[in-house]
Specification:
CATH architecture of the largest domain: Up-down Bundle
Shape: globular
Number of strands: 8
Strand content: 5-15%
Number of domains: 2
Distance between the termini: 27 Å
Strand order of the largest sheet: 2-1-3-4
CATH topology of the largest domain: Glutathione S-transferase Yfyf (Class Pi), Chain A, domain 2
Number of helices: 12
Structural class: alpha/beta
Helix content: 40-55%
Radius of gyration: 19 Å
Largest sheet: 4 strands, parallel
CATH class of the largest domain: Mainly Alpha
Order of helices and strands: EHEHEHHEHHEHEHEHHEHH
């Protein structure tokens, strides 16, 4: 299989040393196996997914993501831009679409970028890593590299909202996207077939301002996974992973529940199934240990 190269936008939470750095670790391990080369965009900046909506105005918000696209065009010419973070992917993709549709806004953005010696052409695709895996490799190719099938594990595929709306993954239902279920099956595990909170919001934007509302949403997401017999939850989103994992103790204290379910990334599953160690798969970054994955990784 020939090496596939992409311009890589890590994003704030998934970068080395950040809250979801174990995501980056598992993605790098997975990409090594699949012969994917990720060329990090030099001097990338925050996509403004969170702070950009707090009164800073439309142009500054879009200009931050536009700068990343322009830097990619300059340093990784002709390569699709790939993000692993759902929020980064959404913010960057939204910027591209907004600037394509509004010539005046594009001109204002380029005027702002010119102060840094940059010009935006806005020509390359913006893609989530799962799109690359599905569209450029396909499930059959992904399955060929499995050396340690994840047998005996039942997993709830929690898509969340940002990889599902407004853009979504090509060919997938907005109400019942199946790609995480297919990833799970391809790695040898069993997906929860009727997971009715698959595309529900985890309340990421409310986690600090109105935590009681966010935690109520998270409770429903976890409860539905347990109702489906899940041993763990898997997601493509760093915010979803963090929220659904780290607030379980607080939810247990408030609601009298006894939740203790691991929440991992699709890339973590793939790394373990591809025969990598727990550390290489980023399992050492779990708050709630994914013991069944650790056992398989340790074989």
């Amino acid at each position: 299989m020939a090496t596939k190269e992409y311009s890589f936008y890590p994003g704030c939470s998934s970068q080395e040393g950040a809250s979801s750095s174990n995501y980056l670790k598992s993605v790098n391990t997975m990409c090594e196996v699949l012969d994917i080369k990720l060329n990090t965009i030099p001097d990338w900046n925050c996509c403004s997914a969170s702070i950009g909506y707090c009164g800073g105005g439309e142009l500054p918000r879009l200009a931050l993501s536009a700068r990343n696209i322009a830097l990619s065009e300059q340093h990784n010419a002709g390569q699709d831009i790939v993000a692993t973070c759902a929020a980064c992917w959404l913010a960057t993709k939204e910027t591209q679409e907004r600037l394509e549709m509004d010539g005046d806004l594009m001109a204002e953005t380029n005027q702002a970028l010119s102060e840094a010696g940059l010009t935006l052409k806005n020509e390359n695709k913006i893609r989530h890593m799962v799109e690359v895996l599905i569209e450029d490799l396909g499930y059959d190719e992904l399955g060929k590299h499995v050396t340690k099938p994840l047998e005996g594990i039942k997993i709830a595929g929690y898509v969340g909202c940002q990889t599902n709306r407004p853009f979504g993954i090509e060919g997938e239902s907005f109400e019942n996207p199946k790609y995480l279920d297919k990833f799970i099956e391809t790695m040898g595990a069993e997906p929860v077939e009727k997971y009715d909170k698959k595309v529900s919001c985890c309340g990421g934007a409310l986690a600090f301002s109105e935590p009681e509302k966010s935690q109520a949403l998270i409770k429903d997401i976890i409860e539905a996974a347990y109702d489906g017999g899940a041993d763990m939850i898997v997601t493509p989103c760093p915010v979803c992973q963090m929220n659904v994992e780290v607030y379980q103790d607080k939810i247990n204290a408030k609601y009298g529940t006894k939740f203790s379910i691991p929440v991992t990334y699709y890339s973590t599953l793939m790394s373990v199934a591809y025969g990598k160690s727990g550390k290489e798969a980023g399992l050492d970054g779990q708050i709630i240990p994914a013991k069944k994955l650790e056992d398989i990784a340790g074989k």
